[in-house]
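sorry to bug you again but im stuck and you know this stuff better than me. what follows is a protein written twice so to speak, once as letters and once as C-alpha coordinates for the fold. mainly i need to know what kind of three dimensional shape the backbone takes. anything you notice is useful, everything is just below:
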Amino acid sequence: MEKKPKGTRKGYTTGACSAAAARAAALGLLQGAVPDSVECELPNGQRITFAVSNGHCANDFAQAVVIKDAGDDPDVTDKAALTAHVRLLPDAPGEVLLKGGAGVGTITMQGLGLEVGGPAINPVPRRNIAANVREAAASLLEQAGLEVTISVPGGEELAKKTLNYRLGIIGGISILGTTGIVHPYSTAAFRASVIQGIEVAANQGQHCVVLTTGGRTEKFTMRELPELAPACFVQMGDFLKYALDTVVRCGLPQVVIGGMVGKLTKIAQGETITHANRSAVDTDLLAEIAAEIGAPAAVCTAISQSEMARYASERMEELGLIGEFYTALGRRVIATLSQRYTGKFRLRVLMCDFDGNKLAEVAGDV
Protein backbone atom coordinates (compact mmCIF):
# COMPACT_ATOMS: atom_id res chain seq x y z
CA MET A 1 0.00 0.00 0.00
CA GLU A 2 1.29 3.47 -0.89
CA LYS A 3 2.17 5.55 2.14
CA LYS A 4 0.63 8.98 2.57
CA PRO A 5 3.12 11.88 2.54
CA LYS A 6 4.54 12.66 5.95
CA GLY A 7 2.55 15.32 7.72
CA THR A 8 -0.85 14.52 6.21
CA ARG A 9 -1.96 11.32 7.99
CA LYS A 10 -5.04 11.81 10.14
CA GLY A 11 -5.45 10.15 13.53
CA TYR A 12 -8.25 9.49 16.01
CA THR A 13 -9.33 11.37 19.11
CA THR A 14 -9.34 10.08 22.68
CA GLY A 15 -13.14 10.12 22.40
CA ALA A 16 -13.18 7.91 19.30
CA CYS A 17 -10.72 5.45 20.83
CA SER A 18 -12.77 5.32 24.05
CA ALA A 19 -15.94 4.64 22.07
CA ALA A 20 -14.21 1.83 20.17
CA ALA A 21 -12.91 0.27 23.38
CA ALA A 22 -16.36 0.52 24.98
CA ARG A 23 -17.98 -1.06 21.94
CA ALA A 24 -15.46 -3.93 21.96
CA ALA A 25 -16.02 -4.55 25.67
CA ALA A 26 -19.80 -4.49 25.21
CA LEU A 27 -19.44 -7.07 22.41
CA GLY A 28 -17.31 -9.13 24.76
CA LEU A 29 -20.12 -9.24 27.30
CA LEU A 30 -22.62 -10.12 24.61
CA GLN A 31 -20.54 -12.80 22.84
CA GLY A 32 -18.36 -14.14 25.65
CA ALA A 33 -15.10 -12.96 24.05
CA VAL A 34 -13.69 -9.53 23.25
CA PRO A 35 -12.91 -9.21 19.51
CA ASP A 36 -9.41 -8.41 18.24
CA SER A 37 -10.83 -5.55 16.19
CA VAL A 38 -14.02 -3.55 16.22
CA GLU A 39 -15.84 -1.29 13.77
CA CYS A 40 -16.86 1.92 15.52
CA GLU A 41 -19.06 4.76 14.30
CA LEU A 42 -17.38 8.15 14.79
CA PRO A 43 -19.32 11.32 15.68
CA ASN A 44 -18.96 12.46 12.06
CA GLY A 45 -20.73 9.31 10.82
CA GLN A 46 -17.63 7.50 9.51
CA ARG A 47 -17.21 3.86 10.45
CA ILE A 48 -13.61 2.97 11.29
CA THR A 49 -12.07 -0.36 12.33
CA PHE A 50 -9.85 -0.19 15.42
CA ALA A 51 -7.42 -2.83 16.70
CA VAL A 52 -8.33 -4.05 20.19
CA SER A 53 -5.90 -5.37 22.82
CA ASN A 54 -5.99 -6.72 26.38
CA GLY A 55 -9.55 -7.92 26.05
CA HIS A 56 -11.00 -10.21 28.67
CA CYS A 57 -14.40 -11.21 30.03
CA ALA A 58 -15.92 -12.49 33.24
CA ASN A 59 -19.57 -13.31 33.95
CA ASP A 60 -20.78 -9.75 34.31
CA PHE A 61 -17.72 -7.77 33.23
CA ALA A 62 -15.55 -7.15 30.17
CA GLN A 63 -12.51 -4.99 29.40
CA ALA A 64 -11.00 -3.77 26.13
CA VAL A 65 -8.15 -1.41 25.21
CA VAL A 66 -7.62 0.73 22.09
CA ILE A 67 -4.23 2.40 21.63
CA LYS A 68 -4.61 5.96 20.39
CA ASP A 69 -3.01 6.82 17.06
CA ALA A 70 -2.85 10.61 16.67
CA GLY A 71 -1.66 10.44 13.07
CA ASP A 72 0.86 13.10 12.06
CA ASP A 73 -0.21 15.44 14.85
CA PRO A 74 1.06 13.44 17.83
CA ASP A 75 0.19 15.12 21.11
CA VAL A 76 0.79 13.91 24.64
CA THR A 77 -2.01 11.34 24.33
CA ASP A 78 -0.53 9.63 21.27
CA LYS A 79 -0.16 5.89 22.06
CA ALA A 80 -2.24 6.24 25.24
CA ALA A 81 -4.15 3.07 26.16
CA LEU A 82 -7.83 4.07 26.17
CA THR A 83 -9.43 1.42 28.34
CA ALA A 84 -13.11 0.55 28.76
CA HIS A 85 -14.54 -1.57 31.56
CA VAL A 86 -18.16 -2.54 30.92
CA ARG A 87 -20.19 -4.09 33.74
CA LEU A 88 -23.73 -5.48 33.77
CA LEU A 89 -26.34 -3.60 35.83
CA PRO A 90 -29.07 -6.25 36.28
CA ASP A 91 -31.49 -3.84 37.97
CA ALA A 92 -31.29 -1.07 35.36
CA PRO A 93 -32.41 -2.47 31.99
CA GLY A 94 -31.81 -0.11 29.06
CA GLU A 95 -29.51 2.23 30.98
CA VAL A 96 -25.96 3.10 29.86
CA LEU A 97 -24.09 4.73 32.75
CA LEU A 98 -20.79 6.42 31.88
CA LYS A 99 -18.04 6.91 34.47
CA GLY A 100 -14.46 8.11 34.53
CA GLY A 101 -11.79 5.83 35.96
CA ALA A 102 -8.09 6.20 36.77
CA GLY A 103 -6.24 8.55 34.46
CA VAL A 104 -9.35 10.45 33.36
CA GLY A 105 -9.48 13.93 34.84
CA THR A 106 -12.08 15.23 37.27
CA ILE A 107 -13.83 18.57 36.72
CA THR A 108 -13.30 20.96 39.66
CA MET A 109 -14.36 24.30 38.14
CA GLN A 110 -17.27 25.73 36.18
CA GLY A 111 -16.74 26.86 32.62
CA LEU A 112 -16.30 23.61 30.73
CA GLY A 113 -19.96 22.79 30.29
CA LEU A 114 -19.45 19.66 32.41
CA GLU A 115 -20.63 18.77 35.90
CA VAL A 116 -18.24 19.79 38.68
CA GLY A 117 -17.03 16.58 40.33
CA GLY A 118 -17.72 14.54 37.20
CA PRO A 119 -15.27 13.02 34.72
CA ALA A 120 -13.59 15.13 32.02
CA ILE A 121 -15.41 13.38 29.18
CA ASN A 122 -16.75 15.97 26.77
CA PRO A 123 -20.38 15.92 25.57
CA VAL A 124 -19.78 14.63 22.02
CA PRO A 125 -17.60 11.69 23.17
CA ARG A 126 -20.18 10.91 25.88
CA ARG A 127 -22.92 10.60 23.29
CA ASN A 128 -20.67 8.69 20.89
CA ILE A 129 -19.59 6.15 23.54
CA ALA A 130 -23.19 5.54 24.59
CA ALA A 131 -24.39 5.25 20.97
CA ASN A 132 -21.75 2.64 20.11
CA VAL A 133 -22.50 0.61 23.22
CA ARG A 134 -26.22 0.74 22.51
CA GLU A 135 -25.74 -0.32 18.90
CA ALA A 136 -23.41 -3.21 19.80
CA ALA A 137 -25.33 -4.53 22.79
CA ALA A 138 -28.95 -3.71 21.99
CA SER A 139 -30.19 -7.21 22.85
CA LEU A 140 -28.27 -7.21 26.14
CA LEU A 141 -29.75 -3.85 27.12
CA GLU A 142 -33.24 -5.31 26.88
CA GLN A 143 -32.49 -7.34 30.01
CA ALA A 144 -29.90 -5.21 31.87
CA GLY A 145 -28.12 -1.88 31.99
CA LEU A 146 -24.43 -1.34 31.34
CA GLU A 147 -21.93 0.67 33.35
CA VAL A 148 -19.08 1.93 31.16
CA THR A 149 -15.93 3.17 32.89
CA ILE A 150 -13.25 4.82 30.77
CA SER A 151 -9.72 4.84 32.18
CA VAL A 152 -6.26 5.73 30.87
CA PRO A 153 -3.25 4.07 32.51
CA GLY A 154 -0.65 6.78 33.12
CA GLY A 155 -3.20 9.48 32.40
CA GLU A 156 -2.31 11.47 35.50
CA GLU A 157 1.31 11.78 34.32
CA LEU A 158 0.22 12.63 30.77
CA ALA A 159 -2.01 15.40 32.12
CA LYS A 160 1.01 17.17 33.62
CA LYS A 161 2.14 17.90 30.05
CA THR A 162 -1.17 19.62 29.21
CA LEU A 163 -2.92 22.80 30.34
CA ASN A 164 -5.66 20.81 32.10
CA TYR A 165 -4.59 22.11 35.51
CA ARG A 166 -5.39 25.65 34.37
CA LEU A 167 -8.91 24.54 33.54
CA GLY A 168 -9.47 22.91 36.91
CA ILE A 169 -9.21 19.38 35.49
CA ILE A 170 -7.23 17.28 37.95
CA GLY A 171 -5.98 13.72 38.12
CA GLY A 172 -5.90 12.86 34.45
CA ILE A 173 -6.50 13.72 30.81
CA SER A 174 -9.68 14.82 29.07
CA ILE A 175 -11.64 12.61 26.68
CA LEU A 176 -12.14 14.89 23.69
CA GLY A 177 -13.18 15.12 20.06
CA THR A 178 -16.09 16.55 18.09
CA THR A 179 -15.65 14.50 14.90
CA GLY A 180 -13.49 11.57 16.05
CA ILE A 181 -10.72 12.58 13.65
CA VAL A 182 -7.46 14.29 14.57
CA HIS A 183 -6.28 16.55 11.74
CA PRO A 184 -2.56 17.36 11.57
CA TYR A 185 -3.20 20.94 12.71
CA SER A 186 0.33 21.60 13.88
CA THR A 187 2.04 20.49 10.71
CA ALA A 188 3.32 22.39 7.72
CA ALA A 189 0.99 20.22 5.63
CA PHE A 190 -2.09 21.58 7.35
CA ARG A 191 -0.87 25.17 7.04
CA ALA A 192 -0.34 24.49 3.35
CA SER A 193 -3.89 23.14 3.03
CA VAL A 194 -5.28 26.34 4.60
CA ILE A 195 -3.35 28.49 2.14
CA GLN A 196 -4.38 26.27 -0.75
CA GLY A 197 -8.05 26.43 0.24
CA ILE A 198 -8.04 30.22 0.14
CA GLU A 199 -6.16 30.27 -3.16
CA VAL A 200 -8.77 27.91 -4.64
CA ALA A 201 -11.59 30.25 -3.55
CA ALA A 202 -9.78 33.21 -5.13
CA ASN A 203 -9.03 31.29 -8.32
CA GLN A 204 -12.73 30.39 -8.64
CA GLY A 205 -13.57 34.10 -8.62
CA GLN A 206 -15.12 34.07 -5.15
CA HIS A 207 -15.17 37.41 -3.32
CA CYS A 208 -15.54 36.08 0.22
CA VAL A 209 -13.76 33.46 2.29
CA VAL A 210 -15.17 32.04 5.53
CA LEU A 211 -12.49 31.06 8.04
CA THR A 212 -13.47 28.70 10.84
CA THR A 213 -11.56 27.06 13.67
CA GLY A 214 -13.05 23.59 13.33
CA GLY A 215 -15.93 21.37 12.30
CA ARG A 216 -18.61 22.82 14.58
CA THR A 217 -17.96 26.42 13.60
CA GLU A 218 -17.82 25.47 9.92
CA LYS A 219 -21.24 23.79 10.13
CA PHE A 220 -22.56 26.87 11.92
CA THR A 221 -21.29 29.29 9.27
CA MET A 222 -22.54 27.08 6.45
CA ARG A 223 -26.03 27.26 7.96
CA GLU A 224 -25.74 31.03 8.32
CA LEU A 225 -24.37 31.62 4.82
CA PRO A 226 -26.14 29.13 2.51
CA GLU A 227 -25.70 31.45 -0.47
CA LEU A 228 -21.92 30.94 -0.51
CA ALA A 229 -20.23 28.23 -2.58
CA PRO A 230 -18.54 25.34 -0.70
CA ALA A 231 -15.12 26.60 -1.85
CA CYS A 232 -15.61 29.73 0.26
CA PHE A 233 -15.39 27.75 3.52
CA VAL A 234 -11.89 27.02 4.84
CA GLN A 235 -11.11 25.39 8.17
CA MET A 236 -8.08 27.39 9.26
CA GLY A 237 -7.62 25.55 12.57
CA ASP A 238 -5.25 27.66 14.63
CA PHE A 239 -3.54 29.31 11.66
CA LEU A 240 -5.18 32.73 11.49
CA LYS A 241 -2.01 34.53 10.40
CA TYR A 242 -1.38 32.26 7.43
CA ALA A 243 -5.02 32.46 6.42
CA LEU A 244 -5.31 36.25 6.52
CA ASP A 245 -1.91 36.82 4.91
CA THR A 246 -3.13 34.64 2.03
CA VAL A 247 -6.42 36.55 1.84
CA VAL A 248 -4.45 39.78 1.41
CA ARG A 249 -2.08 38.26 -1.15
CA CYS A 250 -5.01 36.94 -3.18
CA GLY A 251 -6.91 40.23 -2.95
CA LEU A 252 -10.13 38.79 -1.50
CA PRO A 253 -12.29 41.74 -0.38
CA GLN A 254 -14.46 40.01 2.24
CA VAL A 255 -13.61 37.73 5.16
CA VAL A 256 -15.93 36.02 7.61
CA ILE A 257 -14.51 34.53 10.81
CA GLY A 258 -16.71 31.99 12.55
CA GLY A 259 -15.76 31.13 16.11
CA MET A 260 -16.56 30.42 19.73
CA VAL A 261 -15.44 32.33 22.77
CA GLY A 262 -11.99 30.79 23.35
CA LYS A 263 -10.50 31.25 19.89
CA LEU A 264 -12.17 34.63 19.43
CA THR A 265 -10.62 35.85 22.67
CA LYS A 266 -7.20 34.68 21.47
CA ILE A 267 -7.71 36.67 18.25
CA ALA A 268 -8.94 39.73 20.16
CA GLN A 269 -5.86 39.66 22.38
CA GLY A 270 -3.61 39.66 19.31
CA GLU A 271 -2.65 35.99 18.96
CA THR A 272 -2.20 34.99 15.33
CA ILE A 273 -1.57 31.31 16.12
CA THR A 274 -4.40 30.30 18.44
CA HIS A 275 -3.33 26.79 19.55
CA ALA A 276 -4.18 26.08 23.19
CA ASN A 277 -0.56 25.33 24.08
CA ARG A 278 0.82 28.56 22.60
CA SER A 279 -0.67 30.96 25.13
CA ALA A 280 -3.40 31.21 27.73
CA VAL A 281 -6.69 33.00 27.16
CA ASP A 282 -6.52 36.57 28.51
CA THR A 283 -9.38 36.48 30.99
CA ASP A 284 -8.52 40.03 32.08
CA LEU A 285 -9.60 41.09 28.60
CA LEU A 286 -12.89 39.24 29.02
CA ALA A 287 -13.40 40.87 32.42
CA GLU A 288 -12.78 44.25 30.83
CA ILE A 289 -15.40 43.53 28.14
CA ALA A 290 -17.85 42.35 30.82
CA ALA A 291 -17.34 45.58 32.77
CA GLU A 292 -17.81 47.56 29.56
CA ILE A 293 -21.32 46.15 29.07
CA GLY A 294 -22.36 46.68 32.70
CA ALA A 295 -21.59 43.41 34.48
CA PRO A 296 -21.22 43.74 38.29
CA ALA A 297 -17.69 44.22 39.60
CA ALA A 298 -17.78 40.92 41.53
CA VAL A 299 -18.59 38.99 38.36
CA CYS A 300 -15.82 40.78 36.45
CA THR A 301 -13.34 39.86 39.19
CA ALA A 302 -14.42 36.22 39.06
CA ILE A 303 -13.99 36.20 35.26
CA SER A 304 -10.53 37.72 35.59
CA GLN A 305 -9.52 35.06 38.12
CA SER A 306 -10.85 32.19 35.98
CA GLU A 307 -8.63 30.38 33.48
CA MET A 308 -11.44 29.69 31.01
CA ALA A 309 -13.10 31.86 28.40
CA ARG A 310 -16.20 29.70 28.63
CA TYR A 311 -16.68 30.73 32.24
CA ALA A 312 -17.13 34.36 31.14
CA SER A 313 -19.70 33.27 28.56
CA GLU A 314 -21.64 31.30 31.16
CA ARG A 315 -21.70 34.21 33.62
CA MET A 316 -22.86 36.62 30.92
CA GLU A 317 -25.66 34.24 30.01
CA GLU A 318 -26.75 34.10 33.65
CA LEU A 319 -26.96 37.91 33.66
CA GLY A 320 -28.86 38.12 30.38
CA LEU A 321 -25.91 39.91 28.77
CA ILE A 322 -24.78 37.20 26.36
CA GLY A 323 -25.66 39.08 23.16
CA GLU A 324 -24.03 42.32 24.31
CA PHE A 325 -20.96 40.42 25.50
CA TYR A 326 -20.36 38.64 22.18
CA THR A 327 -21.06 41.80 20.20
CA ALA A 328 -18.39 43.61 22.21
CA LEU A 329 -15.99 40.68 21.80
CA GLY A 330 -16.58 40.68 18.04
CA ARG A 331 -15.80 44.39 17.90
CA ARG A 332 -12.54 43.73 19.76
CA VAL A 333 -11.63 41.09 17.16
CA ILE A 334 -12.20 43.59 14.34
CA ALA A 335 -10.29 46.34 16.18
CA THR A 336 -7.31 44.05 16.81
CA LEU A 337 -7.11 42.75 13.25
CA SER A 338 -7.50 46.27 11.81
CA GLN A 339 -4.15 47.15 13.38
CA ARG A 340 -2.41 44.46 11.34
CA TYR A 341 -4.47 44.47 8.14
CA THR A 342 -5.57 48.11 7.85
CA GLY A 343 -7.74 48.71 4.81
CA LYS A 344 -7.17 45.23 3.36
CA PHE A 345 -10.65 43.65 3.56
CA ARG A 346 -14.10 43.89 5.11
CA LEU A 347 -14.49 41.58 8.10
CA ARG A 348 -17.59 39.94 9.50
CA VAL A 349 -17.44 37.94 12.74
CA LEU A 350 -20.09 35.27 13.38
CA MET A 351 -20.19 33.89 16.89
CA CYS A 352 -21.87 30.73 18.19
CA ASP A 353 -22.18 28.77 21.40
CA PHE A 354 -20.84 25.25 21.96
CA ASP A 355 -23.93 23.73 20.36
CA GLY A 356 -23.56 25.82 17.20
CA ASN A 357 -26.34 28.31 18.04
CA LYS A 358 -25.79 31.87 16.84
CA LEU A 359 -25.05 34.40 19.58
CA ALA A 360 -23.99 37.55 17.75
CA GLU A 361 -22.67 39.03 14.53
CA VAL A 362 -20.45 42.06 13.96
CA ALA A 363 -19.09 43.55 10.74
CA GLY A 364 -16.68 46.33 9.85
CA ASP A 365 -13.73 47.37 7.74
CA VAL A 366 -10.30 46.51 9.08
User: Anything to note?
Assistant: The chain has a mean pLDDT of 91. The chain has two domains: 11-182, 188-365.
